[in-house]
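Design job #97: recover the sequence.
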């Protein structure tokens, strides 16, 4: 028996498990401990997650195509994308830094978006395939998403430190804004997704 079948609902804020009350017409139920609005499942979870995910996919393209840093040194200007920065560190004997940037700024963001899209499709198709593994996937995606901000931190530090006028100067490129948007939007997408929908499909198929 699930909590939903027993008429129990968990608070999204304080996690208190309460017996579901039937509020008067037009009114919402509230958590008796923290006062948050109670829902059996996050309202419009699939629609909101899809909307945020599509926006993140759109922003991911200019984040990797446009320059993320613009470097001026002795009058010459050079623009670098995330990938060109990875190649630069590889060619100049810093494979560890290249690996960190590639993993945090390219691999993790696209993997997070693909995994979230897969979870949404599996829920909409009411798939009962390996719900434990899909739940673990969601937890991993939700946990590691914030580490994609490493590239933005590096750019911020470089912009703050390298201010030598005509001799050397580093500015954040337009890709920095798009990349930060991808990270933030994908984090909101992960939070708007309700993993309990994975198990709802299991119960419906079982019935």
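Job complete. Output follows.
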């Amino acid at each position: 028996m699930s909590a939903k079948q027993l008429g129990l609902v968990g608070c999204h804020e304080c996690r208190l498990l309460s017996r579901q009350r039937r509020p008067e017409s037009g009114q919402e139920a509230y958590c008796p401990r923290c006062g948050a609005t109670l829902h059996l499942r996050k309202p419009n979870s699939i629609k909101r997650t899809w909307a945020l995910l599509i926006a993140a996919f759109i922003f991911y393209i200019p984040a990797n195509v446009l320059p993320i840093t613009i470097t001026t040194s002795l009058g010459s200007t050079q623009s670098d994308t995330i990938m060109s920065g990875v190649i630069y560190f590889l060619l100049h004997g810093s494979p560890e830094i290249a690996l960190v940037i590639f993993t945090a700024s390219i691999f993790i963001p696209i993997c997070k978006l693909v995994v979230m899209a897969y979870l949404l499709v599996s829920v909409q198709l009411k798939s009962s395939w390996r719900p434990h593994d899909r739940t673990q996937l969601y937890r991993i995606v939700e946990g590691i998403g914030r580490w994609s901000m490493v590239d933005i931190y590096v750019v911020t530090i470089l912009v703050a430190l390298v201010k030598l006028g005509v001799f050397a100067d580093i500015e954040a490129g337009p890709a920095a804004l798009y990349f930060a948007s991808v990270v933030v939007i994908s984090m909101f997408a992960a939070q708007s997704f309700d993993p309990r929908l994975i198990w709802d499909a299991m119960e419906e198929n079982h019935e």
